Amino acid sequence: MTGRGLHHVTAIATNASCNLDFYTGVLGLRLVKWTVTHEDPGTYHLIYGDEEGSPGSRLSFFFWVSAVASRRPSSSEHVSFAVAPEAIGWWESRLAACKVPCRQTRTSDGRPKLMLEDPDRTPLALVGTEFSPRTTIWSPDIPEAFAVRALHSVTLSLRGTELMARILTQVLGFAEVASAGEHLIFSAHGGPGGRLCLHRRRERSRPRLGAGVIHHVAFRARDEADLAAMAGKLQDTFGIAASPVKDRHYFRSIYFRGPDGILIEIATDDPGFLIDETRETLGTRLIFPPSLQDRQDELLRILPPLDRVFAR
């Protein structure tokens, strides 16, 4: 269903060059936008995604050098990518060659899965699934048959899942499709970013924000009218007040705090990432939002170097 599902997931990292090397060099993802954060423009915001950086395909990172590693369960909250089921063994060998520890396990619905971590110990998973959208290969040493296909899902770990489950189904366009042990599985559609899993956490408090932790999860709205309608549902049904609409240049969004204090964003699909770059040149240059254009010289003196070799 167009306009529903995940819009993006954003996590916290420390070193942009190491992050870039891992996601493009090891996992073979595409950097689709190289920009800065709106509230703290002295730090990079790197966004990975599909060929056009479409909503539902995006994983992004805020970078704070001083961020300390957060204490958290090792894998109860993680981001998953889809690969072909027969690619799991190949990825196990590749990760070993890249000195990235991993372990093979299974999803709650029985699919083969590799658990791993990025340089900031952000928990990740490669899930073997028949879901196989068209893939452009961005790394020459990854065969097409084994390449990461898409953002598969995100798993959120909450003390109680009842309220978040109701928000997912009554506001955000998901339906509960399965449950297994401590996990509830929801689906908005069968494409990239169409799935979300809630994990019932036993620990009392949510881990503090820090390196390797999800900062926020964003869900899709078709347009600003849809955004306003979803904000209205949040207020009328749950008594949750969303923020005023924020102009993020590539989309408009609202924010609210969900269960356990998790930060949730709802963002429009448009105008998208192609408003200031072509499909072919996405992510190849640092772009400042229009609101920061007059501060470019100042910010370039603050921002650290980003080692990047753009192979095409």
Write the layout of secondary structure elements.
Blueprint: E1 6-13, H1 16-26, E2 30-36, E3 44-49, E4 58-63, E5 78-83, H2 88-97, E6 102-106, E7 112-117, E8 123-128, E9 150-158, H3 162-170, E10 175-180, E11 183-187, E12 195-200, E13 214-221, H4 224-238, E14 246-247, E15 252-257, E16 263-268, H5 296-302
Task: Looking at this protein, list some descriptive labels.
312 residues, eight-stranded mixed β-sheet, 5 helices, globular, 2,3-Dihydroxybiphenyl 1,2-Dioxygenase, domain 1, 16 strands, alpha+beta, 31% strand, single chain
CATH superfamily: 2,3-Dihydroxybiphenyl 1,2-Dioxygenase, domain 1
The CATH architecture classification is: Roll
Q: In terms of per-residue confidence, which ranges show pLDDT below 50 for 5 or more consecutive residues?
A: none
Q: Let me know the average pLDDT.
A: 89
For the biggest β-sheet, the strand order reads 2-3-4-1-13-16-15-14
Class of secondary structure makeup? alpha+beta
CATH class: Alpha Beta
In helices, the fraction of residues equals: 10-25%
Number of helices: 5
Q: Please compute the radius of gyration using only Cα atoms.
A: 19 Å
Write the H/E string, N to C.
EHEEEEHEEEEHEEEEHEEEH
Descriptive overview:
The longest helix has 15 residues. The two termini are about 35 Å apart. The protein is of the alpha+beta class and about 300 residues long. The protein is about 15% helix and about 30% strand. The protein has one domain: 2,3-Dihydroxybiphenyl 1,2-Dioxygenase, domain 1 (Roll), CATH 3.10.180.
